[in-house]
Amino acid sequence: MILQLISLVLLAALLVAVLVKGSDVPTSQEQEQEQEQEQEQEQEQEQVKQRIHQELDQLKAGLDRLCRPCPWDWTLFQGNCYFFSKFQQNWKESVTACQEGGAQLVVIKSHEEQSFLQQTSKKIGNAWMGLSDIKQEGKWMWLDGSPLKWSQYWSRGEPNNVYDEDCADFSENGWNDNSCSLEKFWICKKPASPCSR
User: Fold this and answer.
1) Domain ranges (residues) in the chain
2) In sequence order, which residues have a C-beta less than 8 Å from that of residue 103 and are 6 or more positions away?
3) How far is CA 78 from CA 2, 30, 50, 111, 170, in A?
4) Burial of residue 89, with CB atoms counted within 10 A of its CB: 0-12 exposed, 13-18 middle, 19 or more buried
5) Is residue 85 within 8 Å of residue 186, measured between CB atoms?
6) Can you tell me the distance from the alpha carbon of 189 to that of 79, in angstroms, rounded to the nearest whole number?
7) For domain 75-191, which architecture applies?
8) What is the C-alpha separation between 36 and 43, in angstroms, rounded?
9) Cα(182)–Cα(37) distance, rounded to whole angstroms?
């Protein structure tokens, strides 16, 4: 009888152990639920990624609309950016100031550009341009090394080289040669930046 009782207790203990162990093993229904949860999580993650990409695309489109071909304090004209100084300095200092801004004291390449700059300089006052005969008296050269093509823009009686005047500026009625040591406004020029798409 005791032997039977011990056998029953051992058998019961064995059944409990099997049941406990068996509950750890997921049923096929539980496995399916876990797989469905994993798939749902993956889908949610994919949707989040898509939303992020859409928002980034919208932000990029907004930035593209904000793209400026010229810095804020520069003026765009026919594919170039122009800076009109707010204070005066001599010609050489003006050349340096433009170079430090990644530009050049303005070199005029067209009649339209000349007209635009002449009109604008009337508003700010006499302004240096990148034209001089410093290297050889009477041989006017642009800073980029190109020779002067047009003489019709000189003011009447200019250039006259009074007081050793080797640098050109925009005066009210046209170009004027002046002493390079005088302080005047200046105009810088650089190519406009393309907006990347």
Assistant:
1) 23-66, 75-191
2) 81, 83, 188, 189, 190
3) 110, 71, 41, 12, 20
4) middle
5) yes
6) 10
7) Roll (3.10)
8) 10
9) 80
Neighbours of 184 (CB within 10 A): 23
- Which parts of the chain register pLDDT below 70? 1, 3-5, 7-9, 11-27, 60-66, 196-197
Is-above-0.70 flag for pTM? Answer: no
74, 191 Cβ separation under 8 angstroms: no
In the block, residue with structure tokens 């050109």: 168
**Rounded to 5 degrees, what angle do the CA atoms 105, 157, 140 make?**
35
Q: Which two tokens stand for residue 115?
A: 């007209």
Between CA 169 and CA 111 the distance in angstroms is 16
Structure tokens of 63?
Answer: 């930035």
pLDDT at position 63 is: 58
Strand, coil or helix: what is 158? coil
37 token code pair: 């949860």
CA 98 – CA 137 distance, rounded (Å): 24
Q: Contact at 8 Å (CB) between 95 and 105?
A: yes
- DSSP letter for each residue of 18-73: HHHHHHHSPPHHHHHHHHHHHHHHHHHHHHHHHHHHHHHHHHHHHHHHH--SS-TT
113 CB neighbour count, 10 Å cutoff: 17
